[in-house]
From TrEMBL:
PROSITE patterns: PROKAR_LIPOPROTEIN (PS51257). The keyword Nucleotide-binding does not apply. Belongs to the BPI/LBP/Plunc superfamily. BPI/LBP family. Residues 1-24 form the signal peptide. This is Cholesteryl ester transfer protein. SMART domains: BPI1, BPI2. The gene is Cetp. GO terms for biological process: cholesterol homeostasis; cholesterol metabolic process; high-density lipoprotein particle remodeling; low-density lipoprotein particle remodeling; phosphatidylcholine metabolic process; phospholipid homeostasis; reverse cholesterol transport; triglyceride homeostasis. Gene3D superfamilies: Bactericidal permeability-increasing protein, domain 1, Bactericidal permeability-increasing protein, domain 2. Keywords: Cholesterol metabolism, Disulfide bond, Glycoprotein, Lipid metabolism, Lipid transport, Secreted, Signal, Steroid metabolism, Sterol metabolism, Transport. It comes from the Eukaryota. Residues 40-267 form the Lipid-binding serum glycoprotein N-terminal domain. It catalyses: 1,2,3-tri-(9Z-octadecenoyl)-glycerol(in) = 1,2,3-tri-(9Z-octadecenoyl)-glycerol(out); cholesteryl (9Z,12Z)-octadecadienoate(in) = cholesteryl (9Z,12Z)-octadecadienoate(out); cholesteryl (9Z-octadecenoate)(in) = cholesteryl (9Z-octadecenoate)(out). Residues 281-488 form the Lipid-binding serum glycoprotein C-terminal domain.
Length: 505
């Protein structure tokens, strides 16, 4: 779910990015079609995103480079009439409404209703005839227009990624009225040039606006794909979100299947099967992510190999850990372990000795690993002294929630078996009270502290990728045997799209 936020950027380009490809892709034989991650976006999400389409259409109109329009025609009595429209600009653009449909022909249909725009520029014209001297005039003009815009965005695939084709673009005109400067020109002249240029102008507007819409959609898509790639990459750990199979487009949702393989220093995990079924996801929420146990296990393995499963505790955190209860046994254990040294002069290091084994069950995520705890005393000007070293076989069941833009990991069941115990103050290890206290400390305070720290670290990582910029509504993390489902509604941060359009166009 870490990359969900970044893939929400854009308007109709988001629809394309979430699908990520078309039937033109060659996915190869099994097992290369095994799926580790599935994304489903439902019609309510598409409708929400479509509200932002107006921003893209307005940007396309504003950014379109309208060429000069020239033409000439022979008129009886007037002779040959030539004209040119230059410096064409768009003003006062508005859009009445926008509609979107998801079609099973692998396309997204967007209908923009009643786009009203005022085009301004300069009209230069000249004519000559038997009764007239050659005359040249230049006047400012305004063109009032009312247009519908119909887009059928086809999905094509290159290198397992989406390439949107918005070239199927149609602009029916309801109104195209030419006003010359101050409407002071004779009515016959205005009618003459309206007849001359309206057909040509319609062709130019269609060509340039549709070309710019296609360009904007390509730019947005490339930007989003780059963000998505960055979101699933952190140093040497990369999640492969290229497509595993053809997307599914239904009238009520778009669903894409991704490989979900974890790459670490050019080594890749291998997935040969998938337990995903479309029936596992519903259509009641806007956005769904299905993640396989294999993908999460591979991420944990990569984090272990990269040396990330290490936690250092000092000062107040260390004190909280060892003073979870005020008993004689606790005070004796603290005295023996720290030998009177201040917590500020000590450090506890917790790390995983073996690759964590992860199993997804209805009760939560079950994690098994061999974990070490080392407490060192740091005498001034001397080498650190290892006062305590323990190795424990840990099994913990964790439930995850996402609240107020924070990932919270809560252990609901745990066990710890001490495998190795070395204490400088008790070299023989014959004081059972110390081991009993430490065992209780690990279960009651140690494991919650470690899981809380991991949750905070993951939250910071996701927020560094921009997830906290999005309005995620009522997210649910549902764990089942072999997979996890993240389902949510969301609000679109319009300012992100506006900032992107202002900077990029």
């Amino acid at each position: 779910m870490c990359w969900a936020g970044r893939m929400m950027l854009g308007t109709f380009s988001i629809l394309l990015v979430l699908v990520h490809a078309a039937a033109a892709c060659d996915f190869g034989p099994f097992p290369y079609r095994a799926t580790g991650i599935v994304c489903r976006m439902t019609k309510p999400a598409a409708l929400l995103l479509n509200k932002e389409t107006a921003q893209v259409i307005q940007a396309a109109f504003r950014n379109a480079k309208f060429p000069n329009i020239t033409g000439e025609r022979s008129m009886r009595l007037l002779g040959r009439v030539a004209y040119g429209l230059t410096n064409i600009q768009v003003n006062d653009l508005s859009i009445e409404r926008s509609e979107v449909e998801l079609k099973e022909d692998n396309a997204i249909h967007i209908a923009i209703k009643n786009v009203t725009a005022l085009f301004k520029g300069t009209l230069t014209y000249g004519y000559s005839g038997a009764w007239f001297l050659q005359l040249f005039h230049s006047v400012d003009f305004e063109i009032e227009s009312s247009i519908d815009l119909q887009l059928s965005i086809e999905l094509t695939c290159q290198k397992d990624q989406v390439v949107p084709d918005a070239s199927d673009c149609y602009l029916p005109f309801h109104k195209l009225t030419l006003h010359l400067q101050g409407d002071k020109q004779p009515g016959w002249l205005k009618q003459l040039f309206t007849d001359f240029i309206s057909f040509t102008l319609k062709l130019v507007l269609k060509r340039e606006v549709c070309k710019e819409i296609n360009a904007v959609s390509q730019t947005l898509t490339n930007f989003i794909l780059d963000l998505a790639a960055n979101f699933v990459r952190d140093k040497d750990i990369i999640v492969d979100i290229s497509l595993a199979s053809d997307p599914v487009i239904e009238a009520s949702y778009i669903e894409s299947h991704h490989k979900g393989l974890v790459l670490y220093r050019n080594n890749s995990s291998v997935l040969t099967d998938s337990v995903f079924s479309p029936s596992l996801l519903t259509e009641s929420r806007m956005l769904y992510f299905w993640l396989s146990e294999h993908s999460l296990s591979s991420l944990a393995a990569a984090a272990f190999l990269d040396g990330r499963l290490v936690l250092n505790l000092t000062g107040g955190k260390l004190q909280e850990l060892f003073e979870m209860e005020d008993t004689e046994v606790q005070r004796k254990a603290v005295q023996m372990v720290f030998q009177g040294t201040s917590y500020n002069d000590s450090v506890a290091k917790v790390w995983s000795l073996t690759q964590p084994q992860i199993a997804l069950q209805p009760e939560g995520t079950v994690v098994r690993s061999l974990v070490a705890l080392e407490v060192s005393i740091l005498p001034t000007g001397e080498e650190p002294l290892v006062a305590l070293y323990m190795e424990k076989e840990i099994m913990v069941t964790i439930q995850a929630t996402y609240v107020e833009k924070k990932l919270i990991l809560q252990p609901v069941d745990s066990s710890a078996e001490i495998k190795v115990f070395k204490c400088t103050a008790d070299p023989s290890g014959k004081d059972p009270s110390i081991q009993s206290f430490l065992q209780n400390m690990i279960l009651v305070a140690g494991i919650p502290e470690v899981t809380s720290s991991i949750g905070s670290a993951l939250t910071s990582l996701m927020n560094s990728k921009g997830l906290d910029l999005f309005d995620i509504i009522n997210p649910e993390i549902i764990i089942r045997k072999g997979y996890v489902i993240v389902q949510l509604d969301f609000g679109f941060p319009s300012h992100l799209l506006l900032n992107f359009l202002e900077k990029s166009l």
